[in-house]
Amino acid sequence: MLFEYILQLADNQLILAQRLSELCGHGPALEQDIAITNISLDLIGQSRLLFQYAGKLDEQHRNEDQLAFLRPEKEYRNLLLVEQPNRDFAHVVLRQYLFDEFNFLNYSGLTNSKDEELAAIATKSLMEVKYHLRFSKNWVLRLGDGTAISHRKMQDALNNLWMYAGEMFEKTAIERDLVKAGIAVDVEQLMPTWKESVMSTLKEATLNIPEGGWYQSGGKKGVHSEHLGHLLAEMQFMQRAYPNLTW
Amino acid sequence: MKTKEEVYQILSKVTDPEIPVLTLEDLGVIRDIRVISDDEVNIKITPTYSGCPATDVMADDIRAALFVAGFSKIKIEQVISPAWTTDWLSPKGKEKLNKYGIAPPVAAVSLEEAIVECPHCGSKNTQVISAFGSTACKALFQCHDCLEPFDYFKCHV
Ligand SMILES: [Zn+2]
């Protein structure tokens, strides 16, 4: 049970890191290229800490690399939001911002987890996530309240990605039990604080939240958008083609 | 059998692969040393940033240094709690960074508000260019007096 919960946390960091790594050498400008790849590296590091921990609990005794690279698509438990394609820089920073606000609250809560190892990983990761949040929030503000073109692109990104935000606060049965045990964070309870921060940023960025409360979910249950398969094909290629390959 | 202090002296000569002027002692990443016997030793180190690729290289370098010193059973464990912060950088380490051309970390609310001294000319008239730099631990700054760009070792707390 704890194993599945840790994988779910790890998958979010890993899949987003993989998405961001696609911008390595392709960022809109050198500074942003460096920033995005640095964030990607932090997230890979955080996912490694989680996968290493999950590996210790795995009944099949898989190590961090096997867990990260050799599971089939349906076994990934990441949010639909983090697997969405980059499209343009507006989508990249908005996706990052929506997730960073959540990641910040989630890790903050986990620092008080009764599971000591999880609390230690959260404490370590949180220091890095705070830095990511500052970056993504600044870009949402700068581009949203920027030129007519940057504003339009940010609004398009918000219109496209907003429907994936709700899933972050959907509690699975496993989470429900682990919340009772004082191990997991109750994501439902993070929603009001998240919404308050995000609303205030979007307002300052002169962006409008799309109407309607409908949202798309499935990632946490292993039902993904078509984008994840393509991402995994690239990410898993080396391990599938050359099993047990190491650097 | 070597003492803990002797092993510490060996480890403190191992340097950071990305910032070679800093030793592991300067970085504050050595957390525990247990000498078990003449040829067996257990070491605990802590990573700086969770994704820092230098951490694995440091572990390899520690292993090599201890092997040369006569140990054959070397166990290196990574501990992440308490989490490393830049407060653990030694004063000597901060001085070395500055001489090397990297401004050492200063406590501040944000990078924009941090008063960072230019490592080239000492001016405080400097400005952040990029919050991220060539490695996880650095940001990029510019000096308005000597006009040189420079790396700043981010305050990580
Ligand atoms: Zn200067």
Helical content class of chain B: 10-25%
Structural class of chain B: alpha/beta
CATH homology superfamily of chain A: Ferritin, core subunit, four-helix bundle
CATH architecture of chain A: Up-down Bundle
Tell me the number of helical segments of chain B per DSSP (H or I, 4 or more residues long): 4
Number of beta-strand segments of chain A: 0
Query: How much β-strand is present in the residues of chain B?
Result: 15-25%
Summarize the structure.
Chain A is an all-alpha fold and 247 residues long.
Description:
The complex is a heterodimer of chains A (247) and B (157). By secondary structure, chain A is an all-alpha fold. Chain A is 67% helix and 0% strand. Chain A has one domain (2-241): Ferritin (Up-down Bundle). Chain A has helices spanning 2-21, 30-57, 64-69, 80-83, 89-110, 116-144, 148-161, 173-180, 187-204, 226-241. In chain A, helix 1 (2-21) packs antiparallel against helix 2 (30-57), helix 2 runs antiparallel to helix 6 and helix 5 packs antiparallel against helix 6. The longest helix of chain A is centred in the middle third of the chain and has 29 residues, at 116-144. Chain B contains four helices and seven strands. Chain B folds into two domains: 4-78, Fe-S cluster assembly (FSCA) (GMP Synthetase, Chain A, domain 3, 2-Layer Sandwich); 86-153, no CATH class. The mean pLDDT of chain B is 95. Chain B has helices at 4-11, 24-27, 54-68, 91-100; strands spanning 30-35, 40-45, 73-78, 102-103, 126-130, 138-143, 149-153. With 157 residues, chain B is α/β, with parallel strands linked by helices. The chains are: A mainly alpha (247), B alpha/beta (157). Chains A and B meet through helix 2 and helix 6 of A and loops of B. The complex binds zinc ion. Zinc ion is lined by residues 118, 120-121, 123, 143, 145-146, 148 of chain B.
